[in-house]
Specification:
Number of strands: 6
Radius of gyration: 15 Å
Oligomer: single chain
CATH class: Alpha Beta
Shape: globular
CATH architecture: 2-Layer Sandwich
Order of helices and strands: EEEHEHEE
Helix content: 10-25%
Amino acid sequence: MAEIRILNPDGLAKPLGQYSHLTRVKASEYVFIAGQLAVDKDGKVVGADDFDAQCVQSFANIEVALKSVGAGWGNVVQFVTYLVHSQDIPKFMRYRLREFPKMFPNGAYPPNTLLMVDRLVQEPFLIEVQATAAV
């Protein structure tokens, strides 16, 4: 069983959103989940013009990947998030404010790096989320 401690050191400013500055991990195994897009299990795009629907599907895909190795949200030690439009940052923050307390009920949110990119693998995609977990 992994020992995961999510921390915000005193010498750093309070995080700007639902994330922490670092995760300290002692684990026997790490799980690296490729960036997840808004596609269902049949490979169909979900929410082509709907950022919130794409967030829901991307995180649902991560949850499926976690469960496939006997893990859950509490095993996540880091996210990397890619957005195509900077105008979607407030929508992303609202999604996290709404959903992260359900996913991480202890309020310890994993570190997240948020990057803006020109585009993702196909035009309809607005968000991609990569995760690392420890088990």
